[in-house]
Design a protein that fits this description.
By secondary structure, this protein is α/β, with parallel strands linked by helices. It contains nine helices and seven strands; from the N terminus they run H-H-E-H-E-H-E-E-H-E-H-H-E-H-H-E. Helices cover 44% and strands 22% of the residues.
């Protein structure tokens, strides 16, 4: 990705309510599967983005949350929101790399990650998460999966950078091999792609087309980004996100 294309990418994604699919109802459903968390759990949110789910967790629990993302502007946005909501005593937002976390092992009751563990790959990410959990702690994460075996070539190509993406049945043995026991899993509904993600994205793209009218390079970058929601509108039944909840023994 060229530096200019990268600039346009962040201009599209940084202001969005979320940087990936998800919503409060799905977070509530996943959290309900973590049946006997402590009254004030210690929570780690990995790949938190601008923190939509971090704030959900703050509203749904009485615990403390460490929220980590590698993109500093998103962390600054979350910090401002935490300050605005008077949550600074409970929520710490920090810039960090998931592959090099400076966090003590067995120190969290719940590790949460929505759409971010693919950055490491589940074979690497799940044992790492398991090591951060106290015995009896929970891991809740969403993962992109194939829903069919007949996705057209352009859809397969769109996920080419995630070569290990599989189906739900491919994820389950990785969970087990990571020393975790599956509690349950459920598919996210299609509206989680649109309400706080693709619909705001398309509005932001339209706004930036006006801003960059006459700038061929910027418009080409916007055209490229716009392919993502268009593809989902056309072929989204071939893939989706599944929420997995597992527990360390």
């Amino acid at each position: 990705m060229t530096s200019r294309a990268e600039q346009i990418f962040f201009e599209v994604f940084e202001p969005l309510p979320r940087q990936g699919p998800g919503n409060l109802a799905s977070a509530e459903r996943a959290l309900a599967l973590c049946a006997d968390l402590p009254a004030s759990p210690r929570v780690l949110d990995l790949g938190c983005g601008s923190g939509a789910q971090t704030l959900y967790l703050a509203s749904l629990t009485k615990g403390t949350i460490v929220a980590v993302d590698s993109h500093a502007p998103l962390i600054e946005r979350l910090r401002a929101k935490v300050e605005e909501l008077a949550l600074s005593a409970r929520v710490e937002a920090r810039v960090g790399d998931m592959s090099a976390l400076d966090l003590p092992s067995e120190s969290f009751d719940l590790v949460w990650s929505e759409g971010a563990l693919y950055n490491l790959g589940l074979v690497t990410a799940l044992p790492m998460c398991a090591g951060l959990l106290r015995p009896g702690g929970y891991l809740a994460f969403t993962e992109a999966v194939w829903r069919t075996t007949s996705a057209p070539p352009d859809v397969r190509e769109a996920f080419a950078d995630y070569a290990t993406m599989g189906r739900v049945e491919d994820v389950l043995p990785i969970i087990k091999e990571s020393g975790l026991s599956l509690i349950d899993h459920f598919d996210l509904p299609d509206d989680v792609w649109w309400d706080d993600f693709y619909s705001p994205m398309e509005r932001q793209i339209a706004k930036l087309r006006v801003k960059y009218a006459g700038d061929a390079e910027a418009l080409a970058a916007l055209d490229e980004i716009a392919k993502e929601p268009a593809m989902h509108r056309r072929s989204g039944h071939h893939y989706g996100y599944t929420f997995f909840v597992a527990r360390r023994g």
